[in-house]
Amino acid sequence: MILGLLGKKMGMTQVFLEDGRVEGVTAVLAGPCTVTQVKSRGHDGYEAVQLGFEETRRLSKALEGHLRRTGQFRYLREVPAQDLGVVQVGQRVDVSMFQPGMLVDVTGVSKGRGFAGVVKRHHFAGGPRTHGQSDRQRHPGAIGSGTRPGRVVKGLRMAGHMGNRRVTARNLEVVQVDPARNLVFLKGAVPGARNQLVMLRQAKAGLARMEQNAASSA
User: Fold this and answer.
1) Span 46-55, mean pLDDT?
2) Which of helix, strand or coil describes residue 66?
3) Which of 41, 42, 122, 171 shows the smallest number of beta carbons within 10 Å?
């Protein structure tokens, strides 16, 4: 069983729930994806499945050889899997693997904000606006640590590059699934910009809940 899927963030919208409440959701175009490689514990040391998403015409010779049996894909990513005996190269997976109420982890690349100061990047309050401190409004303040250790400690929050990093939003609830359009609507926000590649994986909390439900029903 494949536990993840590739997709693209389409943007945010809102949906009406059965009880009349309005919920803010993120629409994700999830799949369809094709299994391009199966990695087993005996051969590779771990179990996973490599998925291909979004067909393309231009690839390197190495990738053309790797994908000669499945087709050419722009994106290749590994997702966790279980019971690899039923998974085969060339198999297609789509959004039907998700159901309303499930919990998923969504991984993407956050929006890049360029070089940012400490007020924007770390939400510092800045310096005083009075008593002659006319040039301290958005400064970080002192960064030294006295005689000992007599240097700027590593990891100190300072100005620098903001965003454009791999971010995972955990335990997002699946609100709706539209198999006809390959859309899944997730509660809340998803990292990244529109049309950004994202990876959806079944959350560990959701898997534990499914195992408990299966044990109780048995």
Assistant:
1) 89
2) helix
3) 42
